[in-house]
Design a protein that fits this description.
196 residues; alpha/beta; 7-stranded parallel sheet; two-stranded antiparallel sheet; 7 helices; 35% helix
């Protein structure tokens, strides 16, 4: 695997509100936060660009709503933002699933910087992370998806169908990889390739 010198790391919605278990339920992949931190660290150390997205929910009781403490980034992300030695950095604020429909315009920023390769990580695997990845794939970006740098929560669908967080994460990985939207990889593979 090769990581371009200007490949952008897109860190999706790593916000404190996702720690509110009573709202979201049980998550999968407890190692995700450490893996996301490792990706940010290697991107900053190599001077590559990092994009952070923040979900400003329009749902009145959401832990991610503006004005609620859960809207802010988790501490390990907040500590890493704005590092002086790091490369370019962008904050995209959105209230829908895709980072390409936020402010400022992510696509325009990537185009202006000549960026063609993205690594997408964050929360939730099957929601905003997957939607952003699908759009990026459709827009012609080469996308790497380190599954173990994402997590999600169990969910109930139609007819009483229920899937665990792990079921949903696997379904996302199969859909993205099998559908050609992204190459599903591990954090270790990405870190190793980006450190060369």
């Amino acid at each position: 695997m090769e990581i371009a010198e200007n490949a952008a790391l897109v860190v999706i919605d790593v916000q404190r509100g996702f720690e509110e278990v009573e709202y979201w339920g049980v998550r999968n992949n407890p190692e995700a936060d450490a893996n996301i931190a490792a990706l940010i660290d290697v991107w900053q150390a190599s001077g590559r660009p990092v994009v952070y997205t923040r979900h400003d929910s329009t749902t009145s009781d959401s832990p991610l709503r503006p004005g609620h403490e859960g809207n802010g980034f988790k501490d390990y992300v907040e500590r890493r933002r704005g590092k002086a030695a790091a490369g370019a950095e962008l904050l995209v604020v959105k209230n829908v699933n895709s980072a390409f429909y936020g402010t400022p315009d992510l696509g325009a920023w990537l185009t202006a910087a000549g960026i063609g390769q993205l690594v997408v990580a964050g929360i939730q695997t099957n929601m905003c992370v997957e939607t952003t990845t699908r759009m990026a794939g459709n827009l012609g970006y080469e996308v790497l998806f380190p599954l173990d740098a994402t997590y999600t929560f169990g969910q109930e669908g139609p007819w009483g169908w229920e899937l665990t967080a792990e079921d949903l994460a696997r379904a996302t990985a199969v859909s993205l990889h099998g559908g050609g939207f992204a190459k599903v990889v591990t954090t270790e593979e990405v870190v190793k390739a980006a450190s060369v």
